[in-house]
Amino acid sequence: MGYRLPNTFSRRQQLERVLDQVQKLKPAVFDTAQKWPLELQEFTQANNISVFTTTTQANLASYFKRLLQSAPQISLVMAALPNSEEQAELIGWLRSHIHPQAFMHIAQNSDLLAGCIVRTDNMVYDFSLRSSLFAQSDSLAMRLQNG
Fold it and tell me: Given 4, 56, 83, 98, which is the most exposed site by the fewest CB atoms within 10 A?
């Protein structure tokens, strides 16, 4: 079953927390006022489903377990962290252009100056200003010497 992941649902840790919560739900005693993670609320709203039935809970638990094993994880290192709206935009772009179930971990490294470094399981792409300046350092030194 293909569910849609909300753009605010961006990290594997969120998925693990929601999976844990879904596995703990007991439909017979489930109270609608019971506190459950915001991510689970957003997920059920985005997919227009209810977690009140054991069938739905079993389907969700199975789906979340498959995601934990197979969903791509991308790490993005930036000079400055995006706010939550910008992060949701990045996740939305990632899911519409790269993979609909991808997760993104965003970290900060102010040494980058600008740009970002993107890491996947087997590749690293450095789009930082720092990397660009280092790559052109000989050319820059020559230009400075020649005036």
Answer: 83
